[in-house]
C-alpha cells in the first residue's frame, strides 16, 4: 500500500519534493497543486503588482535587475547542477529556466495540477492499521480551479508536504505616523525597477540582503537613497548617492524622523523588512501556531510534532536554500516510509524548545526562531544523517562562507567574480 502524498506548491521546494516522491512509485504516489500556470514559485518574474490574472495576490518578489546573491555553484540541488556556461551570479530568468529544466528532466509535470488552488487542509482520524504511515490520521485536501472556485474537489491523502514559500506576504512594522506619509509607501515585494524612482529621494528601511541589493539597484536612477537600519554600519563602499542612516522613529507628512533625531524629507518609503508566514488553507484543527514569525510545533523546523505526516519545507531563513530543501525532503520521506523512527512527541517538542531557548540566550529576538546563518551547516548535516542520505558537500559551505566575506567588503562588485568547484571540499576562482 503506497503512501499518498499531497504537495502544496511547485516552486523549488515543491519540485524537489515531487522529484523524490515520484522516484519511488512503489512507496509513494504524489499529487502536487500549483495555483499559477507554471513551475518556479517566487522565481517567476512579473511586472505586475497587487493581484494576478486570477485576482489572487501576486506571489513573486522578483525585481527586473535581480541577480542571485549566491553563486550558482552552491545554489544547485545536489543531483542537478546549473549550466556551467552561466556566470556564477545569475539572473532570476536563469534560475527559473533551471527549475523548468529540473521539472522536465525528472518528468515532474505529470504530477502537478496547475492553476489549482488548495482551499482547505484538515486532519481526519483513521485507525493506524489502515494507514500506510502507521499514524492515526489522514488528510482531507480540498482544491479548486483558480478560474472557478465553485468546482472544488476534496480528496484524501496519507501525508501533506507544504511548500508554499514565505516571500509573498509583506511584513511592514508599525511606525508612528506612517499613515500620514505624503509620499509613496511600498514593500520590497512590489519593487520592480529603479526607473520608477527616477530623481526621487527614497528611504529604504532594512539592510538585510534585499535592502542592500535594492538600494544599490535604486542608486542608478534615484537622486538619493537612504539605507536605514539599526545594525552595525556596512563596511563596504557604497554608491555616492547611497547613505546609511539609523532606523525610523516616526513619520509626519513627508518628513521622516530617525532614531538619532535627524529629520529627512523623502518621496518614497521602501520597506525591506521581511515577510509573514501564511498558510490560509490550514484549518484550526491542524494546530499550527504562528507567534512573532515562529511556527510551532515543528521538529527540526520541519515536521509537525502532533501530526507527523504534515511537514513544511523551506521555513528556515538566511540559508543556501536548494541543497537544504533536498535534505529536508529526504528526512520527511524517511519518516513517512519508516526508515527513520521519529522520537516521541514529548522528545521532539523538548528538542524544539531547547533550540529556541538557545537562540534567545544568544540574544536573538523571538522572530529569529527559524533564522539559520552559520547554524545551517550543522543543521543540514544533522538532517542528512537522520535521513540516511549523503551530506551536502563541504565545498558548498566553504564557497558560501567565502562569498559572504567578499560581499561584506565589496557589495557593489562581489557578483563580478566567477567560481568553480574543484572537489568535494574546495573551490577556486574561475577565469
Automatic annotation (TrEMBL):
GO terms for molecular function: flavin adenine dinucleotide binding; N,N-dimethylaniline monooxygenase activity; NADP binding. InterPro entries: FAD/NAD-bd_sf, Flavin_mOase, Flavin_mOase-like, FMO-like. Transmembrane segments: none annotated. Its EC number is 1.-.-.-. It holds the Pfam family FMO-like. The keyword Oxidoreductase applies. Its cofactor is FAD. Belongs to the FMO family. It comes from the Eukaryota. Keywords: FAD, Flavoprotein, Monooxygenase, NADP, Oxidoreductase. This is Flavin-containing monooxygenase.
Amino acid at each position: 500500500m503506497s503512501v499518498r502524498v499531497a504537495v502544496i506548491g511547485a516552486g523549488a521546494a515543491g519540485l524537489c519534493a515531487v522529484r523524490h516522491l515520484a522516484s519511488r512509485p512503489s512507496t509513494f504516489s504524489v499529487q502536487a497543486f500549483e495555483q499559477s500556470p507554471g513551475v518556479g514559485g517566487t522565481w517567476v518574474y512579473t511586472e505586475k503588482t497587487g493581484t494576478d490574472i486570477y485576482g489572487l495576490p501576486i506571489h513573486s518578489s522578483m525585481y527586473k535587475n535581480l541577480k542571485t546573491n549566491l553563486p550558482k555553484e552552491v545554489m544547485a540541488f545536489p543531483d542537478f547542477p546549473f549550466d556551467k556556461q552561466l556566470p556564477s551570479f545569475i539572473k532570476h530568468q536563469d534560475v527559473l529556466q533551471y527549475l523548468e529544466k529540473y521539472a522536465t528532466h525528472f518528468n515532474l509535470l505529470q504530477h502537478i495540477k496547475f492553476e489549482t488552488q488548495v482551499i482547505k487542509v484538515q486532519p481526519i482520524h483513521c485507525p493506524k492499521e489502515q494507514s500506510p504511515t502507521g499514524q492515526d490520521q489522514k488528510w482531507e485536501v480540498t482544491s479548486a480551479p483558480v478560474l472557478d472556485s465553485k468546482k472544488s474537489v476534496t480528496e484524501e491523502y496519507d501525508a501533506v508536504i507544504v511548500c508554499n514559500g514565505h516571500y509573498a506576504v509583506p511584513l511592514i512594522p508599525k511606525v508612528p505616523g506612517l499613515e500620514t506619509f505624503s509620499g509613496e509607501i511600498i514593500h520590497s515585494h512590489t519593487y520592480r525597477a529603479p526607473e520608477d524612482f527616477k530623481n526621487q529621494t527614497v528611504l529604504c528601511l532594512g539592510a538585510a540582503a534585499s535592502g542592500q541589493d535594492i538600494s544599490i539597484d535604486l542608486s542608478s536612477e534615484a537622486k538619493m537613497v537612504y539605507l536605514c537600519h539599526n545594525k552595525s554600519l556596512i563596511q563596504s563602499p557604497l554608491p555616492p548617492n547611497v547613505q546609511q542612516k539609523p532606523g525610523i522613529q516616526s513619520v509626519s507628512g513627508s518628513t521622516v524622523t530617525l532614531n538619532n533625531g535627524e529629520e529627512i524629507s523623502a518621496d518614497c518609503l521602501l520597506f525591506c523588512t521581511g515577510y509573514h508566514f501564511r498558510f490560509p488553507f490550514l484549518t484550526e484543527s491542524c494546530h499550527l501556531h504562528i507567534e512573532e514569525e515562529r511556527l510551532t510545533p515543528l521538529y527540526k523546523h520541519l515536521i509537525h510534532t502532533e501530526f507527523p505526516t504534515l511537514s513544511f519545507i523551506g521555513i528556515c531563513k538566511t540559508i543556501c536554500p536548494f541543497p537544504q530543501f533536498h535534505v529536508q525532503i529526504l528526512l520527511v520521506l524517511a519518516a513517512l516510509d519508516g526508515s527513520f523512527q521519529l522520537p516521541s512527541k514529548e522528545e521532539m517538542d523538548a528538542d524544539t524548545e531547547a533550540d529556541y531557548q538557545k537562540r534567545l540566550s544568544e540574544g536573538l529576538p523571538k522572530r529569529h526562531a527559524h533564522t539559520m546563518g552559520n547554524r545551517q551547516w550543522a543543521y543540514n548535516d544533522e538532517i542528512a544523517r537522520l535521513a540516511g542520505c549523503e551530506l551536502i558537500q563541504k565545498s558548498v559551505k566553504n564557497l558560501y562562507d567565502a562569498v559572504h566575506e567578499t560581499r561584506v567588503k565589496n557589495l557593489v562588485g562581489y557578483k563580478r567574480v566567477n567560481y568553480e568547484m574543484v572537489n568535494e571540499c574546495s573551490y577556486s576562482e574561475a577565469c
